[in-house]
Amino acid sequence: MSLDLDVSLTRGAFRLDVAFRAPAGLTALFGRSGSGKTTVIDCLAGLVRPDRGRIAVAGETLLDTDRRIAVPTHRRRIGVVFQESRLMPHLSVRQNLVYGRRFSRGREEAPGLAFDDVIGLLGIGHLLARRPAGLSGGEGQRVAIGRALLSRPRLLLMDEPLAALDAARKAEILPLIERLRDGAGIPIVYVSHAVSEVARLADTLVVLEAGRVAAAGPAEALLRRGELGPDHAAQSGSLLDMVVAGHDSASGLTHLSGVAGDLSVPRLDRTVGTPVRLLVPARDVLLATRVPVGLSARNVLAGTVRDLTPLGEGAVRVTLDCGGAALAARLTQASVRDLALAPGRPVFAVVKSAAFDPQGIGTGRGLGAVEI
What is the pLDDT of residue 216? Predict the structure, then answer.
């Protein structure tokens, strides 16, 4: 199920002029505050009417200003999850969920999850009798997600749903969003300005700057190339799909295996054989032209230089081919010169285990080489 959007609008001094196409999966809208992310969400939901544009979901036109088509909000079959849960305080959790199900009337034949399935997916069965005032922030967001799912949406919009949560509550919700992405069969448009969330969740990435699309495409490629805008270029890195190979309780490490090689990361609460997806920050990758010895860093991956891209301010992105997976390193021009790096040269990439944040390591979809 794909999304096609091409809209323009002017509101005071702000102008939005955005066009992109998103395939199935989770599409992240990324950018600094004021870049237009929430305005795009409002256009999709029908809360804002663009001056000009076209929006289509799964081939069905929701907006076409040239043809004077504008499907009203309540008929678009779009679920929305905001920064705050926005639950009705006078209703119980069950009643809030049932209220969401009211919007599925007339959509009984549409694909969707049953009430009990949603309760099980989100783990909120024990909350049904409570009122919103008795919920934590994470519990409230679970219920808000459930309410949106029970409307049998064809598209789920999530406008920075973790922004109001602390780290512990975010750790609760992130795996749920991964489950929705992988198992609910509903495409998701997810607004964020956090690189860690985008790296963990996104299949497709759309970077907005001042109301325009600065970059769009597969999240892996944009993260590796550092196409995240000027504020986040230094946070670029490579996404690797790996599998949990084992745990070392004595050292507090988890061992991962993948086409790029083997990595050790801080202990993960994942069973052996679980696919995982992790971001390897380019700034934390060191390169050596010989097998390094006598290092505290535990991760050494063999690769071949594929290309070198000047980044300005004396920096260079060196892209490696590690067994068919792409790995980027951010080096100085002086280091590139001293190592005599050039396409085709064999090298060894060194990454400290401490460079990985366990909360930023998400659920993968299995092993596979990334085209480079």
Answer: 94
Question: In terms of Cα–Cα distance, which of 129, 161, 131, 160 is closest to 145?
Answer: 161
Instruction: Write down the pLDDT at residue 367.
Output: 41
With cut-offs at 50, 70 and 90, classify the pLDDT of residue 370. very low
Two domains, one topology: 3-228 and 237-363: no
203 conformational bin, left if phi > 0, alpha if psi -120 to 50, beta if neither: alpha
Q: Is the dihedral of CA 78, 79, 83, 88 positive or negative?
A: positive
CATH 3.90.280.10 describes domain 237-363: no
Split at pLDDT 50, 70, 90, the class of 369 is very low
pLDDT tens for each residue of 107-155: 555 556 788 888 888 889 999 999 999 998 888 998 998 998 888 888 9
- Of the candidates 257, 261, 253, the one whose C-alpha atom is nearest the C-alpha of residue 244 is 257
The contacts of residue 281 (CB under 8 Å, 6+ apart) are 235, 236, 237, 355
Strand duo 78-81 + 155-159: pairing: parallel
pTM over 0.85: yes
Cα–chain-centroid distance for residue 127? 28
Helix ranges (H only) for 58-114 are: 93-102
- Cβ distance 303 to 291 under 8 Å? no
Fold adopted by 3-228: Rossmann fold (3.40.50)
Q: Which two tokens stand for residue 319?
A: 């892209």
By CB atoms closer than 10 A (0-12, 13-18, 19+), residue 297 is middle
Cα of first residue to Cα of last residue in the chain, in angstroms, is 26
Domain ranges of the chain: 3-228, 237-363
- The pLDDT of residue 106 is above 60: no
